[in-house]
From TrEMBL:
This is Rho guanine nucleotide exchange factor 10 like. Residues 208-239 form a coiled coil. The keyword Phosphoprotein applies. Residues 875-896 are annotated as: Disordered. PROSITE patterns: DH_2 (PS50010). GO terms for cellular component: cytosol. SMART domains: RhoGEF. Keywords: Coiled coil, Guanine-nucleotide releasing factor, Phosphoprotein. The keyword Coiled coil applies. SUPFAM superfamilies: DBL homology domain (DH-domain) (SSF48065), PH domain-like (SSF50729), WD40 repeat-like (SSF50978). It comes from the Eukaryota.
Amino acid sequence: SGEGKDDAGYMDMSVCELKHPPPQLCPMPEGLSSQQVVRRLILSSIVQSESSYLDSLKRILQEYQKPLLETQNLILNPKKVRQIFYRLPEIHQCHSMFQIALACRVAEWDHSEKIGDLFVASFSKSMVLNVYSDYINNFTNAMALIKKACLSKPAFLDFLKKKQASSPDRITLYGLMVKPIQRFPQFILLLQDMLKNTPKSHADRLPLQLALTELETLAEKLNEQKRVADQEAEIQQLAHSVGDRTFNKLLNPEQRQLIQCELLTEIVYGDNGQILKSKERKVFLLNDTLICANINLKGPPDISSLVPVGPKYSVKWFAPLLQTQVVEVGQDSLQSRDSVVTARRLSSISSTSGKVFLGPPRLYQELEELQHDLAVVEEVSLLVGTLNGTYQNLNTTVSQDWCLALLRLIRLKEEEIQNANKCRLRLSVPGKPDKSGRPVSIMVVFNTPSPLSKISWVNRLHLAKIAQRQENAPGWECAEEDGKTKAPFSFPLLTCKLPVFSSKTLKHLGPSIHSPSQSSLLGFCSASTSLPQGYLWAAGGGRVSTHGQVEIFSLNRATPRLVKTIPLRAPVLCLEYMKEPCPSTEEEAEKAQNAAKIGNIICVGLQDGSIHVYSSVDTAVQCLLTLVNPDSSPVLCLKHLLSFLFAGLNNGKVAVYHRKSGERLLDQESCRLVSLGSEPVCSLLTLEDAVWASCANHVTVIQVPSLHTQSFEAHPDPGCSVTHMVRSGGGVWMAFTLGSSLHLFHTETLEPLQEVNISTRTAHLTPGQVCVSSLLICQGLLWVGTGQGVILTFPVPTLEGIPKITGKGMTSLNAHCGPVDFLMSTSSTLASDLLRRDSILNSREEGATPPREQKPKRLLLQYRLHSTCQLPGKLLTAQPDQGNPRAPPDSLEHCPEDGSIYEVSEDPDVWVRGRSVELGREGEARRNKVTSTAIFSGGRGFRRIGQTASADTSSDSSENTLLVWQLPLALSQ
């Protein structure tokens, strides 16, 4: 309808792509750079969109609120009118003041070119947050009042229709009132474009970043309030639709929160896999209950066109979450024939009962037939090998190709089954007990709108169950008294805790690193319930040990599993994962092709001054290379940037190694030393074109590849060394050896921007004894590990602004007994081909079964061979030899009869010998992205803060322990 679009016409495209640039506010001066021109265009868009927004607010107040409050109308009670338009006058006042200030900046633009500080001054005030919060929290109530008035007051409905009809753009009242909810996301897009076109040396650069921070923080708070209001409205709508008091108690918002709800299609299958019936249901996932409801969408169409009318529900069933299971059949283990037979047997059992819940059994039956045919062809191949004669079309080569073709068809059938499962959500829910009182489970099958929806449901069901565990109920303590506004899955959930390294062999837990990899054996459903795919390398040893060790854990399951142990001659002090460089030129690509395939590597820094290089995909985990710095000084930290590896040394120097063009490994001879001081180099941090290195209380910025340096003081106390640095957007947070304060610095001007004392943010830290032992930024959270084993998190902006801390943060009630030795994030993206929805061999409806007469009686094992002359033996043909005038009679040159058993079909999906087939439509998959993230912390033991130690909540305080937190899948399209 166009009601939700920005009037400036700018939001969906960059400034450079504008077909119709907004009118210039003043003549364009000559001699402007391209960036200055673009900045003026963006300023013009800001002015025009703000003017349009103010006009919309004015229309609401002048054309709707004012007439409804006039005494001669009295269509509605004035009290209800004020409730509908609550806080809109104050919002209009805020933006009227902003427009006046904006006009002043436009007038002096050619002299100052600054606008970022204006946004900070206008929208960082608490009044702005308060009025917008009140408006958003009241929005659902306002829409309900409008809907109720439309039903009970025909004059009011007629008033809305006339106002819409007389407006030039035909926007409804709802379309106007939703604009305040959209305003700050629009501002953010405009400022992001302005920042992209602002040079780093520009005076407006830092103000723009701070403005982006303020707007993102404001938008996040408003989004959270809107999310809570929408969820409460959904639960109220469900409660009002059902008159059962017992059920309404179940929906008490103080005890239960809505995690996810969506329209899904319930499917019932027939004996042959055909769809008997399907019906849309609304499925609600609460924190401890799953509810399935019927939908009644009937409503007056004239009202629905003016304001959204919520549906009415009737609950079909509800089940405790812990008794609900996701069931996947024939998907994750189709590699073995036994699993296929099991799936077939399950389908048969379902068929005999008269109800088929496991999906189309036709697919499993066809897969079993292919397995049978493969066994027969394998026997035929053995018999062909015993032939005395040699024939071109009947020999071991051909029979082996038949086997390969069948294997290919089997794999395609397995993939077709997986494709059918990608949008099919099977749930086992408890039913009524049978006559003997035994529990009965019912299988319910839903079709989800997309594979993303399916994987989201599986993941959130999995995490909602984890949220009910003892260690997560509660798992975090909020310093702010707003814990009720957050759903349980919005907190990182403690998934598991596991011992690592025997305390008898290694008394100190060192660093860790994530080596991402894709596992083709991990099924579509399992990928949403396991940790990020790949391997965790955990190191140990410490400076007081005489030896070191690395333990490698597989993460392709819900709980990490130890798969390899690497003993080392010296303690491990640091790890770094280094990606294989992408060749930038054809010459480099050719060199890379000729070089040995090494791929991504993992560098291990030891106390004896050496760096061991391992292949991240080498199952044997053999050392590929050992680098030794000239001074043999202990390697305290490692970071890579482009093709360079930086090693921070104990003697105050940074060793820089280079990976030569076309080569996979680092060059020992390329080592260069950058001297920073006499104190150890404790921390390294990479930015776009530089590496930050800390030495004592100073930080040195090393430019790449010139290695030019610039140093600045990070702390006034020379005895307070920088120990940790993490970067987000335009800022770097630093922690120190002394004190409990974190300092934020600007990445471009190197100026200090904020200081936060973490000991004042929670009651669980002893003041004066707090030190920061680890630091991490991941998905909008700054994680702080302390020497007391307590972990804190603070929300920080995720865009290109400054990662300032604005909230009071949260404290994890799951802690270590000793210092938090490290915090590490692991992240992986689900393989894009798993998100492809369409079936490869079958483009028809998933549940449909073709008539039996259309099924081919035999499988065509064909290749597209343009010549059979390379096959040995005489021709085997059904026709007499007619010869070839262009070739001798004994020639094996190709003729049509030779390839008759090969070239039967031109179907592009048929396997073609010698090249792979492009499968499916990759475009859809590339647009979708699913990211799995988990946080690992390492330290001594495990304890629950604020609880008496018990066998379930604590462990041996001297045992090295990993705590693993899992975050919800991040879904994007």
